[in-house]
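Provenance

Sequences were taken from public entries as deposited. Structures were produced by running a predictor on each sequence independently, with no templates supplied. The record for Isoprenylcysteine carboxyl methyltransferase family protein from Halalkalibacter alkalisediminis is shown for reference.
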Amino acid sequence: MIAVYLFILLVIVQRFVELLIANRNAKWIKSQGGYEAGKEHYKYIVGLHVLFFVSLLIEVTVTKHTFMLWSIFPLGVFLLAQLGRVWALSSLGRFWNTRIMILPGAKVIAKGPYRYLRHPNYAIVIAEIACLPLIFQAYWTAIVFTILNAVTLSTRIQVEERALEEATNYHKTFEKRKRFIPTYDK
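Predicted structure for Isoprenylcysteine carboxyl methyltransferase family protein:
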């Protein structure tokens, strides 16, 4: 059981490190004349992620679970998502953020996983929220938070795309790419 808690704690620490990176990047974007879009819904995203981890910890504590061979599949997907996360973050560099940070006139980055998808980072978050609980047979957390995440992301993506289209070359860069289905054009 200690290994389960340590694994989840490691993921939580990773999220805190990402928040530090995001805050540093936000300060840089603002210093370049950028601004935040969609402030009003950001608190719901933060709340969703906090409650996700609370729910996960509660469910793994009160539910008797044993290692099941099929748990290797969600673990594998989760670990691949971590590689994708690093790829997405490093591809965006200073433009990566947990908030919707807009730098007017900036050229949208279309390298790394963004070469194939409009929103690879959100695809990664979807995979993580669905798979992390399944590793530990936390079925209720997986189901409830996958649904809540879908609702939250539907708003988030619309706000983000609208803000990027108004202030950058987003539409021209991504007009032939799907949100979550990989496509490639030169």
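The first strand starts at residue 35 and ends at 37.
The mean pLDDT is 93.
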